[in-house]
Amino acid sequence: MGLLSEPVAGRDIELVGEHAMQQNNLAIPPMGPDRCKHCKRAYTREHLDNCLAKAWYVYLLCFERIFFFLTLQLTMVAKLFGLAAGLLVLGGIANAHGSHSSDQPPSDDWATRHMIEEHHIEAFDPPSFFILHDYDSSGTWTHDEVRKTYGLNDQSNAAVSEDKKQDAVRTVFALFDPGNTGFITRDDWLQGIAAGKRLPDLGFGPGHHGDIEYEYEIHHFEKYHGDDTTEADLTHPEDIEHFKQHDEEEDAALRLEKLEQMQVVVGNIPQKFRRNM
């Protein structure tokens, strides 16, 4: 029987090949220091090269499969995060483009709602509320001032009838003008509050009483934009409507300026007095 060539370096042992032993009906010796624990074959340099190559191939194959499954899992996680982020963005857009009419259920303390939504103030006292809404600093609230505070002059309540608006003002005066003087003084207000009276929610919203610039700033720009917002970012319907109002005001001012420069305003001449105009 021939010997297997090139035994492992450092070993001076003659190793008999497995095939030769099988041909001679010899039992394969048990795995020991001279046999590979993986394939049970005798150690030779050729065997080591083949065995290690196969082992590396198996390891690489396993690594490839593990990498594939990890990539698949990461892809699924990324898609889930993307979906969640998309839903949040859509929700934010829906809120930004939705109505700012503040359709909320009536509140027993309308003044608190008004201060939070219209002035972004949560902590205040009755005297400061009175002074803030005493627009001419006269020390009293008039019918016009209460009407303004409740936002009855705002465009959002343009469809409300005049009778309903007057009824709303009378309701407030019935609470805080016990002497029926036609005015609500600071003392009337403070005494009413001390007695447990509150401004009622009459169903006309939070009380928009600022100009168009103030209302746009406090109800939209501060909520959905920031100091670093550029003109290109102002694409919400509220932004477009706001700038449209500015354009209309500028156009109206230009028309008025032209009319003032005319010696005769043709539009003011009755039709029966016009000839060839």
Automatic annotation (TrEMBL):
Looking at the record, the residues that make up the EF-hand domain are 164-199
Query: Record keywords: Transmembrane included?
Result: yes
| GO CC field | endoplasmic reticulum-Golgi intermediate compartment
Q: Which SUPFAM superfamilies match?
A: EF-hand
| One example GO MF annotation | calcium ion binding
Gene3D superfamilies under this entry?
EF-hand
Q: Where are the transmembrane segments?
A: 66-90
Q: What keyword terms does UniProt attach to this protein?
A: Membrane, Signal, Transmembrane, Transmembrane helix
Q: Which PANTHER family match?
A: NUCLEOBINDIN, NUCLEOBINDIN 1
Q: What is the protein named?
A: EF-hand domain-containing protein
